[in-house]
Specification:
Keywords: Membrane, Transmembrane, Transmembrane helix. It is a single chain. The protein is an alpha+beta fold. It has 2 domains: 53 residues; 187 residues, no CATH class. The protein contains 5 helices and 13 strands. Strands 1, 2, 3, 4, 8, 9, 10 and 13 form an 8-stranded mixed beta sheet that branches. A 3-stranded antiparallel beta sheet has the order 5-6-7. A two-stranded antiparallel ribbon has the order 11-12. A hairpin with an 8-residue loop joins strand 6 and strand 7. The radius of gyration is 39 Å and the shape is elongated.
Length: 262
């Protein structure tokens, strides 16, 4: 039987998958989604690039080393000559303009005025350069007379004088540093510039035989240092009720810088 005209139309529509009008329609939702993805992608790339450039342009800041210019802190200084602590240095003149000055009882005032006297430059050698008659180097130690106490002048290899605990033994100049009065891990070095003063730190310049225990600054000096720190308006510190007894350090033989636990 011949197909009807209507049947032919139905067959034709089925074979094409839809009418011409439907096939001509544009998928607008698809293109809109594609456009949004492109915009978001470009924005992400721009943001990442901008963030990277900002981080690259920002310099890395390294924390400054104390003591800082414009601050005032205090430390304790002692001299161990042949096994005995020397009397404290006389106070620096009131007219002294140095950044590191001596107060009574072995207390050192640390008030850097410029970069040359701040941070790691605040060494005992710098202090000695501004204190009349005092000289500290890798090979020698000179301490000025103080009242009835005679001057000291010793060089590496000299023998300790009679009447001292290390009499007759050859000595060596060294510097021992404690970060604070409670520290039990001092650093001892034959290089006097290896350690610098910091707030509430202790330092002993010694001339003793190698292997000899080095004395901390006296209990009285430590107490005066803490009192000065507490009174300072720039670095308020709470002084402890009591200061522990002196714990000696030891000069290590044939070393430059060491840290020893007691």
């Amino acid at each position: 039987m011949a197909k009807s005209q209507t049947g032919k139309w139905v067959s034709r529509v089925a074979s094409t998958g839809g009418g011409r009008t439907y096939r001509a329609q544009r998928p607008t939702n698809y293109y809109a989604a594609l456009a949004i993805i492109i915009v978001v992608g470009l924005a992400s790339v721009f943001w990442a690039r901008s963030s990277y450039q900002t981080q690259a342009a920002t310099p890395t800041t390294t924390p400054a080393t104390a003591p800082l210019v414009g601050t005032t802190t205090y430390a304790a200084l002692a001299f161990d000559v042949c096994g005995s602590l020397e009397p404290s240095l006389a106070a620096s003149p009131s007219t002294a303009t140095a950044s590191l000055t001596a107060q009574a009882d072995g207390v050192i005032k640390i008030a850097p005025k410029n970069a040359a006297s701040a941070g790691k430059n605040a060494t005992v050698v710098l202090f000695a350069s501004g204190y009349p008659g005092l000289s500290i180097s890798t090979g020698s130690l000179k301490i000025p007379a103080n009242g009835a106490t005679p001057a000291v002048s010793l060089s590496n290899g000299d023998k300790c004088p009679a009447g001292t605990p290390n009499a007759g033994k050859a000595g060596t100049v060294a510097v021992t540093y404690w970060t604070n009065f409670a520290s039990t891990t001092p650093q001892t070095s034959t290089d006097p510039t290896s350690s610098h003063f910091t707030g509430n730190s202790l330092m002993t310049v010694s001339f003793v035989p190698q292997g000899t225990k080095i004395l901390k600054p006296s209990k009285d000096t430590i107490s005066k240092m803490l009192t000065a720190a507490q009174a300072s308006s720039t670095t308020p510190t709470s002084a402890p009720v009591s200061v522990p007894q002196t714990v000696p350090a030891t000069i290590p033989p044939a070393t430059t810088t060491t840290t020893q636990k007691k």
